[in-house]
Each structure stands twice: as structure tokens, then as C-alpha cells.
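User: I would dearly like some help making sense of a protein record. This is the protein in question:
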Amino acid sequence: MSVEWRGLSESAWHHPGLAFGLGAIAAVVVVLRVPPGPLRRALLAFTAMTALDAFFTGALSPLPAGGALAQPVSIAFVILGDLRLFVLLERFRGEARWPVAVGRAVAWSFLVPVAQAIAIRSAPGTFTDLRRIYLVYELLFVVLAAGLLITRYPSRAAKSPALGWYATSLVGFFLVQYALWVACDVLILTGADFAYALRFVPNALYYGLFLVFAAWRAPAEATA
């Protein structure tokens, strides 16, 4: 009997089930690996935010699928999900304190959504379904992340090589995650049902494993 991967992908077992399970694991790893301090608080806040994302955008969401709030809430959580990366990037690549890092991260987080909105408005006939809209966002983020790595932005101005490598590795993680989403969505658009199953991998990276990675790879300088 063949598996209906799209149905499983849209089920509560996957979303929010997978996210809740990985979020719980991430919270445990953060507590065990990161000493008490700002980084631990930030990662735990990100874990809670990610759980809310999964709840409000998944199969158990109290928001009606076609309701007025569903799309704005979904967009907001996409931006907040990327914000996790940019807060850590700005905090550990230079001298910025946490409040300053958050302010800069907000600006970074709106780059791709604004570019996506411009792209959609410039060619409205091309983006006629959600999958194409997802794909243009993912492609733009891949370009942004690759650009950051090529210009060595994550490591420039870092106070130590360890912090520079930490920031670089976080950007690299997001680049891989978004590149996998691109590959999956291209396959889905060609009619490959199994690509919905492949999408579990970048979803797992996004909803839990990024936080595990951020906690596990954090050098001692990041927890001071």
C-alpha cells in the first residue's frame, strides 16, 4: 500500500507533532548544554516561539484556514523564525549587546519578505499558488545566506575566532535548511508526491534541530 505523503505532511502528526517533539528535545539540550545567562534565555525563548509557530500554523491551529488572520499570522511566524538566526548572528559577530542585536536582526528579517513582495508584485501571474510563493521566499533566502557567507559577514568583526566560526556555522545551517526546502518545493511543483516526505527534513531542521545546533555548538565566549 502506497503512502499518501501530502496527507501525512498536512496532518497533526507532522505539524505540529514533529515540531513539538523536537522543541521539547531542544529545550532539554539548551538547559543541559548552555549555562544560565542571556544565551540560554534567548534559546529557550526561541523554543517557545517556535512551538507557538507550529501550533498556530499547523493542523491544530484555532485559526480558520481561510480566515482573515491565518495568512498574516503565518507570515509573522516566518519572519520570527528567521529572526532567531539574525539575533544570534548580530550578537556574536561583533560588539553589539542583546538589545542592539535584536534591533539589527529585525531589519535583516524583513529583507527577504520585502524582496519577495516586490517579486510577486512584479510578476503576479507567475505566483498563482502558495507553493510558488514559498519557493520564491526560499530562493531569496538562499541568495541572502550565500551572500553573507561569501562576503564573510558572519565572522567579520567577531571578538574571537570561536565566535566568528559560531556565527558562520549558524548561517551555514540556515543555508542548508533553505536549500533543502527549495529542492523539495521544486520537486513538488513537478508533481513528485514523495517530496512532501523529503520536506520533513528541513522542517525538522527549522523547528528544533537549529536550536539544538545553536546550543551544542556555542563556544564558552557565547555564554559569558
Q: What stands out?
A: Residues 5-223 form a domain with the Rhopdopsin 7-helix transmembrane proteins fold (CATH 1.20.1070).
